[in-house]
Structures are given as structure tokens and as C-alpha cells.
Amino acid sequence: MGKVLIELKNLTKRYGDMTAVDHINLTIRENEFVTLLGPSGCGKTTTLRMIGGFEEPDEGEIYFEGKLLNNVPPYKRNINTVFQRYALFTHLNVFENVAFGLRIKKVPKHEIEQRVKRMLKMVDLEGFEKRYVDSLSGGQQQRVAIARALVNEPKVLLLDEPLGALDLKLRKEMQIELLDMQRRVGITFIYVTHDQEEALTMSDTVVVMNKGVIQQVGTPQDIYNEPINRFVADFIGESNIIEATMPEDFKVAFDGVVLDCVDKGFEPNEPVDIVIRPEDIRIVTNPDEGMIKGTVTSVVFKGVHYEMLIQSDYREYMVHRTMMFPVGSVVGMNIQPADIQVMKRGEAIE
Amino acid sequence: MNKKLRLLAYPYSVWMGIFIVIPLFLILVYSVTTGDIHDASSLKLSGESYKKVLEPIYLNIIKDSFVLAAASTLICLLLGYPAAMIISNTNIKYRGLVLVFFIVPIWMNFLLRTYAWMSLLSPNGFLNRFLMWLGLPKLELMPGQGAVLVGMVYNFLPFMVLPIYTVLSKIDKNVLEAASDLGGNKIVTFFRVVLPLSVPGVVSGITMVFMPAVSTFIISGLLGGSKTPLIGDLIEQQFISSRNWHFGSALSIILMVMILISMAIMSRIDQNNAQEGRKV
Fold first, then answer.
1. Shortest CA distance from B276: residue in chain A
2. Which of A310, B89, B226, B253 could cysteine-pair with A294, CB 3.0–4.6 Å?
């Protein structure tokens, strides 16, 4: 793991009575691709804007390479931003947009020329130097915005939902390109998105936020396979969330069955929530061979798999299988111990 | 274009012909002839009116008019730009109110506003009584060009503020943040981003102030007195009291040509600014 680059300590931002960001603590390392993920209004953009210097924290500190950053204005921070709607300079052409930061820093002319050209080559916009930014497509404007930020060789690049305005296909392409760029330039990216798939695809570390509070920090695998609470499980991917109890270590009880699991350390009979991902439920045609019995009530073809709803005596399960079981058939469902994720009871961390 | 739609344009064409083209043509005819204006047969082609314009006394009046109009435009710009910035930076809740303060003077009658300045600036007016009360010497602003300048700036300032304010308020706040993000402090951001983006507003503001300022006759008539007439007063005088329509027409044509030239220069500046980004 790289050196610690940014540290947020008890960072808080209030707007009137509303607390947008509530005492968050976070450590960001060199070369890390960190994604702040959450629904709109969860405080992810506000956190990013405080790191960029566009919002002043009401409480707490931001450290950059060990130095307090709170009162440093944006133009003195070694951090650059790619804004949500790009915020390009419409009175300047592509070259001058990218050169903007270097001109202010009084970089020699021939060096500006070289660096801008190199950067435009990297974002695949060679030959667009004299074009006006208005005449570019959304994807091209996006690349100009990235080039304009990266040409300054910042230590950290902040990206505020940079792909939000693009269509699905272009967004997927740009995700891969952005990731590739981050690996090549070797700097820290702090990326804000509400798209969980995007977060899982790109990040080294995902920070899931809700109502101004960090819910969970972890690798995409951690977040998906071991969500810490109902909110995270629900926000990341599809899930069956069930209220259960743990009679003893490695056992969960719900709906009249007791299943094996791999979790321990809860109080005896402590109420918990468990998560079972739809793709982790296996179906057997003989209901008696299953741990739970149920009747298929709906089948939707999703391309790679079928999404089926199976009604047991107690609840409805969502199941993803490549094999289809017709509506009305009574089937058995089996779940492996490792596919049951046990979480402390509670909606989310408030 | 659709033929039926084209028919709809005819009334307007007729209107334009009767009220714009023909009068302009008549003025052009009067300006290059001499004789009785009511008797077409007596009109003779002559350059006399234009020759008269070239007499030093009239050239001076034209020069004064342009200098005074340019000065009032400049002052309006220097006062109006910061005012527009202040308004566009005002919290949206109070912005409407602040804007109204700038616009309210336009709602009042133009003549009334100018009369108000007369009573403020006249030799025994409010200003001088105030100065005397302070024990300071009197100011002899009125009648004179100083008072005319004050009147022009007061009357035309809103026309400078409004277009600049409109352009400034349309600038995306994110763009200013981007400039700051890229290393620009407030001053750099102003000169490299805000000012270039606001040029269209400045150009239309200058046009909207300069044109009425250069041709005004009420302000100069009321505040300037008869010693320092402007080209507008001169034209009025030719048509109303001197009854020399030929000379009045020639002056009008010259004023028009000069305004056209100034407009052409302004639109050139606007275009250059728009093209500046293309240069590498």
C-alpha cells in the first residue's frame, strides 16, 4: 500500500439545519482509486468539494501530505478537478482550455506547447487544438476536461460524476479509459458516483455513504460480498435481506430453518440481518432436497440469466439462474454457508 | 419560405417603406439640395449644406458631441460594470430588489429626471447650497458640459448595467471554480475568464449608451444651456427655429454615418473577441 496522501478527520459540513457531511474519517493513499458512492444527497459531492477547496468545512480537518489543508484556497492546492458538467471555457479553444493552468503558472511557451500536445494525444484529441469546445460532443468535452486537469500534473484528481452526462455505451468505454489513464499517470483519483456498477468496476477502494455518514469502506469485493448493513447490501446490487437470529456461532435461524454460515462473534440469539445474493441461491427440482421450499411466481429473462421470484411460506426470494423454472413449479432452494452474509441488525449507520 | 407566410410580411414592408425608407430618402434629398422645401420644382442639387457642416463652429459641435458621448459611455462602463458584478453576486433572494433599484429611474419620465438634475445642479441648486453650508466654493457645473455629462451618465447608466448583468449572471459558477482549481486567484480569474466571457454584454451596453448619448438634445438643452450646443440641439434648431431643413438633413446624415461607423467598429471588436480563442 502506498503512502498516506489525504486524511479526513471528523470532517463536517452543515447547510442550515441539514448536516450534509457528518464527522467523517477517511484515509486516502498514493495511487489509490477511491470512489465515494451513495444516493444523491448522501454528502459525497460535498466531501469532494471540501477536498477541492470549494466548500469550507464547519468542523474537522483535511490533511494533505500531513499538512493542514483547511484554509488553503483552491488555487493553491496541488489538486485538480473534473467537474460534473465539465465547466470548460467556452471563450477558448481546446488548446487554450488545456493550457489554462500552465499559462497562469507562467510555464515557458515551448513547454506549454509540448505538454498540451502530449496530453491531447493521451486523451485521443490530437488535431482538435483549434476547435471550439462548443463544437465538441459530450465525450470529447469530457476528455478536454480531463486533459485540462491532468496537464497540471496534480497529485490528486477529483472527479465529480464525470460520466453522468454520457450515454451507456460511451460511459462504459470511458470507464475503462479513465482506469487506464489512472494506471498510466499513477496519481490518486477520488471519484464521486451514484452508480454502484461504475464504483465496483473502477475502484481500489469504495466508500459507501448515506446521509452524510460513511457506511463502509472496502475493496469492491468486500463491499459486495460482505456488506456491513442493510443499507449497503441494498444499495450495492440485488439482494435478499432477511431478519434472522444467531442461536450460536456459525448458525443462523429464520423462517423455521437453521442454516450453517461462516460468521461468529454475535451474542447468543442476537437478532441480525442476513444477505443472500440472488445468484447464490441454487434451485433443485425436488422440493424435498432443498433447505427451503417455494413456488415460482414470476420469471423474467435478463439476457445472461433468468430472474425468478420464488414464494416460500414466509417470504419472496429473488433468484438468478441460467436455467429457467416455469411459473407455478414447486422447487427447493439451497444456500452455501459462505454465501450467507450476517450483519448487525439496523438500517444504516446514522 | 412558405408563400402564404411571405404574404404576412407585406404589411410590414409597406410600413417600412412609408415610415422609414421614404423619410430617409427625403432627408438624403434635402441634404444635397437647396431651395424651397415645399416646392419640389425649386430644389436644386447643391453641396452647400455639407460645405457648411465643415465650418469650424459646426465641426467643433460635432467633435464636442462625440467626445461627450464617448466620455459618458466610458463613465457608464466604469460605474456600470462593477454595479453589474455586485448585482450578479448578490444572493438570489435580494437580487430582484437590488435590480429594481437600478431600473426604477427608467420607469420615471426622462424629462422629469433631467429637470430634477437641473434643480440639483443649478447655480442656486441643492448641491451648491450644500457646498455653501459646508463653507466650500460654489461649483459652476450648470449650464455647461459637466452638467450634461452628469445627466447623460445618470440617464443612460441602466442601459449599461442591464446587458452586462445579464451576461454575467449567465456565467456558470462551475467555470469560475474551474479557473480557481487551475490556479487562478480572483484577479486572474476575472481577467482571463469573467471579462472575456462578458464582452458581448459590454459591447451591447456601449452601443445602447453611446447611440442615445451622441444624439441627445434634451439633456444638453436643459443642462448645457445655449452656450454649448451638441449636434442633437443643432439639428433640432435647424428644423424647429432656423427652418433650414437642408442643413438639418445634412447634419442628420452625417450623424447617422458616424453612428454606423462606430457600430461597425464595435461589432468588429465583438467578433475579434469571439475569434481570439481560435488563435494558438
1. A92
2. A310
Q: At what angle do helices A168-185 and A138-150 cross, to 10 degrees?
A: 20
For residue A335 the three cell numbers come to 444456500
Nearest of A349, A343, A340 to residue A266 by alpha carbon? A343
Edge-first strand listing for the sheet containing A188-193: A79-82, A156-160, A188-193, A33-37, A205-210, A213-218
Average pLDDT value over all residues in chain A = 92
- Rounded to whole angstroms, how far apart are CA atoms A163 and A84? 8
Judge whether A250 is closer than 8 Å to chain B, CB to CB.
no
Q: Which residues of A touch B178 (CB under 8 A)?
A: 81, 83, 87-89, 148
CATH superfamily, domain at A239-344: Nucleic acid-binding proteins (2.40.50.140)
Q: Cβ distance A173 to A3 under 8 Å?
A: no
Min Cα distance B279 → chain A (Å) is 7
pLDDT of res. B198: 93
Match 448536516 to its residue by C-alpha cell. Answer: A19
Beta-carbon pairs below 8 A across chains A and B? 81
pLDDT above 90: percentage of residues in chain B: 36
CA distance B194 to chain A (A): 10
Q: What pLDDT shows up at residue B1?
A: 55
ipTM > 0.90, yes or no: no
Bigger pLDDT: B117 or B225?
B117
Q: Any idea which of A141-145, A173-177, B205-209 has the lowest mean pLDDT?
A: A173-177
Record the cell numbers describing residue A305, joined without a space. Answer: 440469466
pLDDT on residue B277: 47
CA–CA separation, A20 and A14 (whole Å): 5
Q: How far apart are the CA of B69 and the nearest CA of chain A, in angstroms?
A: 30
A100 contacts B182? CB cut-off 8 A: yes
Q: Identify the three-state secondary structure at position A17.
A: coil
**Is it true that domain B50-276 has CATH number 1.10.3720.10?**
yes
Listed by start position, the domains of chain B span 50-276
CB contact under 8 A, A75 and B184: yes
State the DSSP code for A337: G
Pairing type for strands A188-193 and A33-37 reads parallel
- CA A178 to chain B, closest CA, distance in angstroms equals 20
Q: C-alpha dihedral over B111, B113, B116, B120, to 10 degrees?
A: -130
pLDDT tens per residue across span B1-56 = 577 788 888 888 899 889 999 999 999 999 998 887 777 777 888 888 888 888 89
For residue B143 the three cell numbers come to: 449650464
Assigned superfamily of A4-230: P-loop containing nucleotide triphosphate hydrolases (3.40.50.300)
Q: Express each pLDDT in B234-278 by its tens digit.
A: 898 888 888 888 999 999 999 999 889 988 888 888 777 766 544
pLDDT at B74: 96
Question: Rounded CA gap, A15 and A49, in Å?
Answer: 14
CB B140, CB B221: distance < 8 Å: no
User: How far is the C-alpha of A166 from the C-alpha of B268, rounded, in Å?
Assistant: 37
What integer is the mean pLDDT of A63-67? 93
The answer on pLDDT for B279 being more than 50 is: no
Round to whole Å and give the CA distance between B83 and A79.
33
